[in-house]
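Quick one: co-fold with copper (II) ion.
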Amino acid sequence: MCSSDLSPASGSAVKGTVTFTKVEGGVKVVADLEGLTPGDHGFHIHQFGDCSAPDATSAGGHFNPHGAPHAGPTAEIRHAGDLGNITAEASGKAHYERLDPSLKLDGAESIIGRGVIVHANADDLKTQPTGNAGGRVACGVIGVAKD
Ligand code: CU
Ligand code: ZN
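Sure, here it is.
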């Protein structure tokens, strides 16, 4: 299993945890976050596991090993890192759970060591190359975790 602890970026109070577990048919992604504004927030794996910049731009663009266009998580052709949106309730808490058929936890396209970003705004799933999701409000690095 892999996981990422997300810390606030860009002066937000957003934090939480994302886990990636290999299961039959792909990788199960489970995220629990708090401190969000209510509504949809773009949620992606980014190229670099580097959250050092205050606005998390150090994580680079969306993880995209195949040079594909940006899209939604159910699109056949997409950035590998396109996980869509995470939806926060009025309390600011958000829960996300999805089986992703294409994420890899090993090999040349492994997501280990990459970044996880939550954005200020919703991902429209079509604007290139970012989904127009706005600033970065939380950032984490994906590491190998104890099962
Ligand atoms: Cu992103
Ligand atoms: Zn993308």
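If it helps, Residues 44, 62, 70, 79, 81-82 surround zinc ion (ligand 2) (CB under 6 Å).
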